[in-house]
Amino acid sequence: QWYITAYEPIYDGTSKLIGVLYVGVPLKHMDILRKTVLNTRVGQTGYVTILTGEGEYAISKDGKRDGELIKHIKTSDGKLPIQELIQQAKQLSAGTIGSKRYLWQSGAETRESEKMAHFMYFKPWDWIILAGAPVSELNAVVRDIDYAILKKIKFQFILAVFVLVSVSVIWY
Fold it and tell me: What whole-number distance in Å separates Cα of residue 144 and Cα of residue 29?
């Protein structure tokens, strides 16, 4: 079972290490955090997940793969995206967010698709907190925004032509 832990060295009067203070709380007692992660969706099918710095799921999508080691999964392009993501995450400055595009096969998908993930590294617990979604979903949102902007521009153009024609008719 997963624990959230903290360790603190204990020194004697001569600065010699004589022990370690350990405090551990089972992750199952962190219900609010877990529920929040499990219930967060990004777009239609994207999700938030937490990986350990060793490449295991601490909290996976729907909690079905918790504890599974995934850093050795190689994608069809020959890459190890989780290893790359972990390396990139551990190089981030505290509080900064990284991003990565990679191939991945999630859940019920029958084949790999391109994903976009944004992530940050939480060093005290050696966690990578990741929010990701298929690029196709993100592109659909961009297309919807572009379409709305185009509709607005067309409307403004038609309105401007109408006003110009109306003013011309009234003026002459």
Answer: 41
